[in-house]
Amino acid sequence: MFRSRSAATKARESFALRFALAISSCMAGSSRLCIPEIRDALLNTRPQRMAQSIDALRQQWTAAGQGHCLQYADELSADARMQLLDQLSSIDPAKASAMYKRAKNPPPDKAGPPAPLDTNQIERLATAPRAKREGWRKAGLDACRRGEVAILLLAGGQGTRLGFDRPKGMFDVRLPSRKSLFRLQGERLLALERLSKAPPGSIPWYVMTSAATDAETRNYFRKERCFGLKPTQVFFFEQGVAPAFLDDGSIALETKSRVAVAPNGNGGVYDALRDSGALQDMQARNIKHVYQYCVDNALVKVGDPEFIGFCSSEGADCASKVVPKGHAHEKVGVLAQCDGRVRVVEYSEISQQNAESVDARGRLLFGSSHICVNYFSVAFLETCITLIDKLPLHVAHKKIPNVHDSAPSAPNGIKLELFIFDTFPFAAKFRVLEGTRGDDFAPVKNATGKDSPESARELLLKRDRRWLAAAGASISAGPVEVASALSYDGEGLEAFAGATVAPGLISAAPAAFSPACLVAVVAVLGALVLTS
Q: Does domain 122-435 have CATH number 3.90.550.10?
């Protein structure tokens, strides 16, 4: 019973149609006849129609054991009552009740115990032959140039844990450029277009927001002119929601005119792609390969051509790019296999002995951390949409404010989520590509310490120093950031050989500034930025 908030969009479209028809009626005939039509289109509050709606909904919701959601309907104002009816009309109460029962009494997991990935299921960039890697990269760039690649961004979260009450993609990790996560990623997509020689605007960016972030995200992209991308290549759509339940199985009433709902997890992306028309848009564009990532990864290689080429060359339906675990008992999900099918296994499902087991090279057998960088063929995405009712429901015990207890002191109910990786076992051919943390993963999740803006910034700046050093540059002390306009993945920096690079944002080759090759593109030193 997960649903996309596109129901609200459909309601708005229905309103627009009713209003247009009313205006047409007014223009075609007597104004005396059109006034009630316009009023009805605008307010939709005719008593007879509302009474019929309430009676039908009350019967449907009572039959499903959720009749309490209408217990205050007769007390509400006309506007509040209509809001309640609109929301309840978008929820199937029988399916919602069945969802609660399935979550509380899940079917037994018939999968066998987790086992390490087979060697034919995983490739490691650290040991792959150079020629093989170059072949993957070329195949990925060729796919980009042919218009076969799409980018799927999960950006529904807010920066609450960072002390930032806005969409997390707008967060600034305090690089010398002071660019937000959204801008860093948008400019990398622009750089990928240039690198692959793809026509401008031909690599679409599908951005999944949530009710909490949608409007502000859209406005931010508009204000920032889509970071140089064409507006037509950015497709926004909202994550779905699911009812929240109290411990007795009743859907929680947040207020007398609204039931409590919550985002349905990143696994809600499948329904949302269908309901929003995003999947149909991919099909219309003849997209074959979808690169998916999360907004809070400051190092993500947006549209990573090497990964795309690897998946394409392997004929994978689905794949995941992973990084090695930091240590045996790091609390992260890892890729493993159960009965020959690849799946994500939580750290709590792995015994201490298995967690510490290593192969002949000393690598952890269960060491492939899932960082939510995934590949989907469009054909497999179509299959995923048919699997929703087969995916496990993940239960989170929460404090749920409601009309009977506005500030519960302890968890009093549950919220249900779907996880994007629960479709992995259904892939006929799943592959894993292992990268490195320093090149692929800099999460921004906590305000301080591990996985914080500070740790992400450090990883990104270290990467850029490696790029410049590999090109033969001498690098002064202090933070140095390489703009995506200069390099997507460390390529194209040959002009810096022998140059001395000063701290700041490097956005042009040294010859454009000084015969002495002293590069200082930004006036504000990185050290000052970090202490401001």
A: yes
